[in-house]
Amino acid sequence: MLSTQDNETLTRVGPGTPMGELFRRFWLPALLSAEIGERDGAPVRLRLLCEDLVAFRDTEGRVGIVDAYCAHRRAGLFFGRNEDCGLRCVYHGWKFDVNGQCVEMPSEPHENPQTHNVRIKAYLTAERNGVVWVYMGPRESVPALPDFEWSRLPERQHTATKRLQSCNWAQAVEGGIDSSHISFLHSRTESAAGTPGNRYHASDRHPVFEVSDAGHGLVIAARRHAEPGTYYWRVTQFLLPCYTMIPPVGNFAESSQEPYDGHAWVPIDDETTWTWSFSASPARAYRDEEIAFRGGREGFWGPVDEGYQPLLHRSNDYRIDRARQRTSNFTGIEGIPNQDAAVQESMGPIVDRSQERLGASDRGIVRFRRLMLGLARDLSQGQVPACANDGARYNVRPASMLLPQDIPVLDGAAALLRGAPAQAS
């Protein structure tokens, strides 16, 4: 459990809050490149870390993420004209470039000297592998972009998509690092068929956790009994400030070659989150059907509508099927992401952690909270997290494997947990 004060610190992300300031020291995924694909196309509303913004791609292809409101009379720039390398407010014609600089004031006298002194808030952006990133922190200490393996793989070896989640970012992350719930929430009641991993999840429902500090955040290993003399390990990565990597399930001996998935849990505000889903296939190109499955609106992370709103949601009870719940599906809810969302959103927009009763299976969650609260306190005293300035620390993978019982997991998994080295440019 957390005190009410610590829970407030953990969950509030607006400007000036301890956690909000910590998030602002990192690059964050803001939107898919496809959402603003056209030069001089329509601007897109964007809300991140409790700030209202608009995004647009200008005539030269540059992406701007700026204040949602004009500096003149605070009219909404979403209705603006994206033209001639700037976003023009339709109220009085003031135009702003991707850096937030006012470049035209047609409603004012010609050569008005004020023009060059007027700016709106604008954030740094970068674009990689179909994702627009944003940095919302101080310009005097811009960090490195995180060097995720998926962000530099060839076109058909990665996917990215997102969906809205109606709860605070932290309870979403905590679901992502909790390897014990898969024995229940994502199980099927009729059998334990499928991969060996599924069988181990069913036969050993109380995994033992080992949590280790890492340069990027935490390494969270869950151990289950497998064949005599062996353990089945699932190793989840938590990467600052809001990323998780999901251990694959498959042929353990070749898991370094298997596709794997990860998430970014990016706060829209204190009570809603963009759940980003990334996948990487280090060894081969995805087939068309795999790309649709991993990255499409109707695929594994869906179904979602054109605005990436889930079609299974709280208002329709996630289309729970009680008959299936009795006979085959532990929850009666279709799809792992929808099962996760149902329980995480059922806690309320911000769960009251002072009312929790934690157990041994929550060791990773306890360490996550302690880490984030400590880093927020350190930043308030001027200490910036080291990994914010070292993108190479993000070049890691999750892993699942069988190991002899006398082999420490971080020794046995070492080769599997490293991403492929970046190629020299």
Task: Name its key features.
single chain, 425 residues, Rieske Iron-sulfur Protein, Naphthalene 1,2-dioxygenase Alpha Subunit, Chain A, domain 1, 2 domains, eight-stranded antiparallel β-sheet, six-stranded antiparallel β-sheet
Describe this structure in words.
The chain is α+β, with helices and mostly antiparallel strands and about 425 residues long. It has two domains: about 25-140, Rieske [2Fe-2S] iron-sulphur domain (Rieske Iron-sulfur Protein), CATH 2.102.10; about 150-410, Naphthalene 1,2-dioxygenase Alpha Subunit, Chain A, domain 1 (Alpha-Beta Complex), CATH 3.90.380.10. Helices cover about 20% and strands about 25% of the residues. The chain is built from nine helices and 18 strands. Strands 11, 12, 13, 14, 15, 16, 17 and 18 form an eight-stranded antiparallel β-sheet that branches. The protein has a six-stranded antiparallel β-sheet with strand order 1-10-9-4-3-2, with no helix packed on it. It is globular, with a radius of gyration of 23 Å. The termini are far apart. Keywords: 2Fe-2S, Iron, Iron-sulfur, Metal-binding, Oxidoreductase. GO terms for molecular function: 2 iron, 2 sulfur cluster binding; metal ion binding; oxidoreductase activity. This is (2Fe-2S)-binding protein. Pfam families: LigXa_C (PF19301), Rieske (PF00355).
